[in-house]
């Protein structure tokens, strides 16, 4: 926490705005909107997962539909597809950004349309904070007239040329879960450039109450709005977003400066015009064995590291789903490792980690 959060939470107590909504909710939304620019309209919600669920609902996804989803991601990108009775179809990554491959996306659209029906939506992810190839993905999406949900849960603070991540899709989502770059302990947001869509999202997120003096409902709703207390935490966190991004990017820089001299360690570079918040610093090793040696070596010294996300098309729960793959994400999963990446790591924390990795690496 930055310290400012307590001021906003205290305001909520002092003014007795403990009941769900209140001035911090509107304030947090304004803070995110002014950060994002680009005519964005934001609804803050109880989680990023809930935001994806609402986004799919807003796009009319329902039973029997297919949604194309990046395979190399956290399960929360794909789970909400199934809440609506729809099926995920997984798309592999390309190696420049580790995100959705435009080629495989187009191949999947053509193939699914031929064999079943046109997919209803696309979920592309800025994994670890690295933007996906938004122009290429958007061009394909427009060509076939399929909307894009931009899963920006890990990418608040990242940029794609002069635009902020979260504003690149038809609908964007953020997460403020405890492990993300800023947090409200739990929370999320939906981003749109259309005020009416935002209104509809808020309506659905508050149990879809019709405008009547009694409780009347003509739609199925959700209880997905963020509370005024947590929005207070979010306002304090927005004040330090820039510092958090700076700290995370600095972690990456130090790892890279010290480890790139090893021929069997490599890093994900930013393509021209791409700016990553470096939510997590990751390395690629030369083999599964080297990756495990490093991971276990770190663990011996009480340092936690973790393999990269296990692709969704390899997850037991999604075993029956269609997938368009070329081995890219499987390889990343096999040889990649997420290193300690917190915004509060000290230079000696980083050095300790680097020294252990060096033991298992060759020049
Ligand atoms: C964290 C995360 C989510 C889900 O956000 P929650 O707020 O935890 O529900 C979705 N997608 C990705 C890629 C994530 O990392």
TrEMBL record:
GO biological process annotation, one example: polysaccharide biosynthetic process
Active-site residues, as the UniProt record annotates them: 180
Modification sites for N6-(pyridoxal phosphate)lysine: 180
Keyword set, alphabetical order: Aminotransferase, Pyridoxal phosphate, Transferase
Pfam family, one: DegT_DnrJ_EryC1
GO molecular function list: pyridoxal phosphate binding; transaminase activity
Family: Belongs to the DegT/DnrJ/EryC1 family.
Protein name: Aminotransferase class I/II-fold pyridoxal phosphate-dependent enzyme
